[in-house]
Amino acid sequence: MSTVHLGMPEVRPQHASPSSTLRGSRGFNEAARDELADETLRGNLRHATATIQAKRASAVREVRDWQKLRNAGSALKWQVTDHLPELLEQLEESVTAAGGVVHWARDAEEAGEIITRLALERGAEEILKVKSMATQEIALNDVLAHAGIRAIESDLAELIVQLAEDTPSHILVPAIHRNRAEIREIFLSAMPDLDPSITDEPAELAEAARRFLREKFLDMPGKVAISGANFAVAETGTLVVVESEGNGRMCLTLPKTLISVVGIEKIVPTFQDLEVFLQLLPRSSTGERMNPYTTLFTGVHEGDGPEEFHLVLLDNGRSAVLEDPEGRSALHCIRCSACLNVCPVYARTGGHAYGSTYPGPIGAILSPQMTGMTGTDDPNSTLPYASSLCGACYDVCPVKINIPEILVHLRAEDVDRRRETRGEFHGTWDAALKGASTLMSSPRAYDIAVRSAGALGKLLPGTNIGKLPAIMPLMPGWTDHRDLPKPGPSFRTWWDQREKEKAARGPDSTADGAGDSTADTAADGAADTAADGTTREGEEQA
Amino acid sequence: MRISLMTTCLVDVMAPDVARATVTLLERLGHEVVFDERQTCCGQMHTNSGYYTEAAPIVRSFVDTFEPALEEVDAIVMPSGSCAGCVRDQHAVVARHEGDPLLEERAAAVAAKTYELSELLVDLLKVTDVGAYFPHSVTYHPTCHSMRFLKVGPRPLRLLRAVEGIEVKNLPESDTCCGFGGTFSVKNEATSDAMVTDKAANVVASGAEFVVAGDASCLMNIGGKLRRTGAAPRSVHLAQILASTKEDPFVPSDTILGRASS
Ligand code: SF4
Q1: What is the ipTM of this complex?
Q2: Mean pLDDT score of chain B, rounded to an integer?
Q3: What fold is seen in the domain A83-316?
Q4: Which of A337, A387, A400 has the most ligand 1 atoms within 8 A of CB, as the residue to mutate?
């Protein structure tokens, strides 16, 4: 395993800082149980994810060379991870040459300090924000609030979440867990001037948000705005923001000072590479052929747009992800959210169960890698298990991140860490799987165990196993919800019996007769009574 | 042809009729089936749960069982998409984790001859009409590993459609996982339950008498939920349908995936 060095001199890969919003307070299973109990939430999610999923599918079906596009997207992203240090240095040069200022932030704290300082120096009391995952990840709104600066989200869904003092539960649609009626309530309590006769029609709600935001756009003391970026072109220093509402473009063009916070993995090598991603992203995320607003901006231009441009390049654990060759492709993510919408786990639990800014399948591989999995009690070490490994995410991912493979890889990492830590490898699962491993690698012992399973099954009443007492290890996890077939005579018992009968019939017996009902009946009997054991012996001698 | 049967551990113990049906079917088609009693498990549960080190001896045992006879058989068949997938894609991962290139090489040789049942029938034995008779309505659950990892595609459906008397009904949201996921079904039991509840409801909505799939584990999950909720449909493995004939028709027993003695 080779170590990859970043372009930042004497800097070693490190995990995200604890103040990042990348780790919840509870493990996935526990958090999911609460979310699953919320019927409204499940209804909202089911409806929303099914709708976006269907839209995506039809938008993708239209593109005949979709698989080739995915291959191209994946190849470009591999090129980026392979050459990240050089590309980052190139980006810094191009941005600087275009009149921008580049800042390097190792973690959430450093990024927060840089941005707060820039804002305070410019006398900003209120800052407008373009929807950005990177700023969510570093909890920028809270950091700014500590410094007395109010951040206002300009994205409609992000605004809903902010006004409700909630956290986003989806990468693209942060308020996916809310329905129209809930949004109306949120607006009514947060916007004092709102006419109470407003209905929950989407058009009316959007209008209310528009009015609220327009005032902010026009009245910005200090005139500072903060954005993220979907892509950063190393060759030209161009940043790209892709959005649907146009509010982002207002924020990117109106302020005097623009600060963009961008994860170091957002790089694309050349301007032409955008052609691939600008096709992949809208179809995968909103199911549109093209997104309504794509803003590209490069440095500063006199008399046109912001007078000052600052780029904050954020590591916050990305260098740690990059270090693992098996897991690093998680950095290829373009945050389209297709994997969330198609995930049967996400569609039922919602995003909050994952505890991190990045939920769903990509969150399950990205969050634990960014923060590290520090121990059995680390909520993020439960995330790699939050999947049935159905693979639907891999199928839809526009940059072909093999999420199920990385999930299993991270499980192995978690298990390996426990195995190597004294006193930690003694959990119920550890004991069960160690025991099963010994048994399943000893053919003779295993053979005996399988043959006795039928006899054990006979001790249980009924034809299937129903609810088992909670004190039993592991089993109730299954039997609380579904019946379990009762083990009967094993296949191999039947097979032996049949072989013996075949032998008894002599060398003339052909395969044709083997499946006949005599054999079936005999085998059924064989496992049923001890007397059959005698029969078997007898036949053997015959 | 001479076909070595790897029943999978789950089928051997929990759903023996699936393996018996596989034998019946292949022999009816004129092939010879062999069964090596040293076989245990493919190691999928350990591998997918991240216990590579504990999976390694199981993989070794698997290879030790099937490699020596590799020249004497034309194929190894597993009536399970996920287990065949584990053999094909994951044994190498386990071997690499253990730093055992020899095991990786030997496992690859065994994997090259390993087939899931529908692959064996359609690709190697070149049959789609196996002469089966099953006068019931069924709905087909593709199972994630067969569909996305092995990519068996329409093979099982082609086999099913050729069965005399069968009616194949559409399963709503058929591509969605049933929630089994190995240890996931117990570790994340609440989420798994939410998934299998929806799957069982879709099976009921299909109006079919049976839900059929190529993986006994998923069928045990769906069938177990159907039983628990008192819903009418039964789960049945593809092999059990294909083994069923007019002379010896499949009749389900009360045990999940079981067959009533004839
Ligand atoms: S992992 Fe792939 S599918 Fe998921 S959000 Fe990222 S790019 Fe989209």
Answers
A1: 0.96
A2: 96
A3: Rossmann fold (3.40.50)
A4: A337
